[in-house]
Specification:
alpha+beta; binds protoporphyrin IX containing FE; disordered N terminus
Length: 470
């Protein structure tokens, strides 16, 4: 069984590195006598999972009467997400997303998932995403107009909120070929509620408390109904008008099952639209905001990125083809995704008995995998806390397991929107940083929040100045 055993404690990154890791730990943190580790997972999930990881690469965790495992090695990620993926389904925790996403791609399983994935994946092929580039840059340009005034007045503003509004507008425009318009404020607020509700509910083992008509639950349900209502209305208008565009909605409406030649049902279409909007908006916003904060702390890399942008774009707006030449900018985004992966953990449940690297996994067992932990695993990455985009140079990636780095997941359920998100992040950063200097006015080292995405605990505030060129 275990090769070595360590005792419980709170671990810093340095302590984690020096901890005597076991390949299979005989035991993990003890936790509460009845609840097990659930209270800590609920209140400080990241800090707690870091502690668990210091026990080894496979660590048992008691949750009530069951034993779950943290899997903390690229080979285990490959096993669960790729090699033996058919034996793993998503956990009931994902069901907490159903009020928003229904049976959309992120939560569906089995035949429904297979069919929908085949229908949706072509919408995100490179040439389709490239065709959305102009729409993205139009939104970014319009969004940055008020930054001119901000740059003159030096007034601090809520950067987290601002970037979130930007990516929501991009999600909306690329999906519906229209702006948020009068729905802007309501939609943004409902999206924030949607995120917070999910974060609150994800660790609730029952749904009973969600059904009580408390003020909070009523507010949550109103937000859900509002978001679904807006999407339903736009889809209905589109159907009625028979207008077609090159937006994602048109592509999804026209997508036909290769076997049956059927299009999606009305409800499925709405679930998928909601899924794509929710899955694609906050994830991207969080990472752009982190990138701006992290680059501010890395002046040499910031200058290098700007030099590249100046040289490649020479003052023009980026186009899809620039993704090839904005190579360093892309590596910066990859490094931000390593250190601040917006989806930082997920879980799967074993369908049948399995064995992972010597550890028997009984049917029904939950396994946890954390991008954040594996991306900073001291035995996988040199100097893992150091910000270094050159880790992603081809010569430095050779030989590294592709399951050591998986901000967009891996295997058949890998994110459909990865290419879309990369383009959006590269465009947003290059268009912002070529013109503006950013001064983060809130905490320089924002702490992680206890949320679904790896957001900072507090919103980031910043002021902008026109960029000084040398
Ligand atoms: C930085 C941005 C993003 C990150 C970090 C991210 C991350 C992820 C991850 C880790 C998964 C796999 C979850 C799992 O296996 O349990 C996933 C799935 C998914 N993502 Fe993303 N995502 C991003 C952007 C987007 C965008 C822009 C879209 C759509 C426009 C999108 C749509 C989806 C969908 C539909 C799935 C479910 C795929 C399936 O199960 O077949 N994501 N994403």
């Amino acid at each position: 069984m275990s090769e070595s055993k360590v005792t419980a404690g709170t671990f810093t990154a340095a302590e984690r590195e020096n901890a005597p890791r076991a390949k299979i730990a005989a035991e993990g943190p003890k936790g509460h006598p009845i609840m097990g580790v659930l209270p800590e997972l609920r209140t400080t999930p990241l800090k707690f999972l870091e502690k668990v990881a210091s026990y080894g690469d496979i660590v048992p965790m008691r949750i009530l009467m069951t034993t779950a495992y943290l899997l903390n090695h690229p080979a285990h990620v490959e096993h669960v997400l790729q090699k033996n993926y058919r034996n793993y389904r998503k956990t009931p925790m994902v069901g907490k997303l159903k009020p928003f996403m229904g049976e959309g791609l992120l939560v569906s399983e089995g035949e429904l998932w297979t069919r929908q994935r085949k229908l949706i994946q072509p919408s995100f092929l490179k040439e389709r995403v490239d065709a959305l580039a102009g729409r993205m840059t139009d939104v970014i340009q319009t969004h940055l107009k008020p930054w001119e005034t901000r740059a003159q007045t030096g007034e601090p503003f809520n950067l987290s909120w601002d970037i979130s509004a930007l990516t929501l507008e991009i999600a909306f425009q690329t999906m519906f070929d229209t702006g948020l318009g009068a729905d802007a404020q309501g939609f943004k607020e409902a999206m924030v509620i949607a995120h917070d509700v999910t974060a609150d509910r994800v660790w609730n083992l029952t749904t009973i408390t969600e059904k009580i008509p408390t003020k909070r639950n009523r507010q949550d349900n109103e937000a859900i109904a509002y978001l679904r209502g807006v999407c339903t209305r736009i889809i209905a208008e589109r159907r009625a008008s028979s207008r077609r565009s090159d937006d994602l909605l048109s592509i999804l409406m026209d997508a036909r099952d290769a076997d049956t030649n059927e299009v999606m049902s009305e409800q499925q279409l709405r679930d998928e639209v909601m899924t794509l909007m929710i899955a694609g908006h906050d994830t991207t916003a969080t990472m752009v905001a982190w990138a701006l904060v992290m680059l501010k702390q890395q002046p040499a890399f910031l200058e290098k990125l700007r030099d590249e942008v100046d040289e490649v774009l020479a003052g023009r707006i980026p186009e899809a083809g620039d993704m090839k030449t904005l190579d360093f900018t892309k590596r910066v985004v990859q490094e931000v995704a390593r250190l601040r992966p917006s989806i930082w953990w997920f879980a799967r449940v074993a369908i049948n008995d399995d064995n992972i690297a010597g550890q028997p996994i009984k049917a029904g067992t939950t396994v946890f995998i954390s991008q954040y932990l594996i991306h900073t695993h001291p035995h996988v990455w040199d100097d893992p806390e150091k910000f270094d985009p050159d880790r992603f140079l081809p010569e430095n990636t050779a030989g590294r397991s592709k399951f050591a780095y998986f901000p967009f997941g891996a295997g058949p359920r890998i994110c459909v929107g990865g290419g879309f998100a990369m383009m959006e992040m590269v465009f947003a950063l290059s268009m912002i940083l070529r013109r503006y200097d950013l001064e983060v006015t809130s905490d320089q080292e924002p702490a992680f929040g206890n949320l679904v995405t790896l957001r900072p605990h507090e919103d980031i505030w910043a002021r902008v100045k026109p960029r000084l060129r040398h």
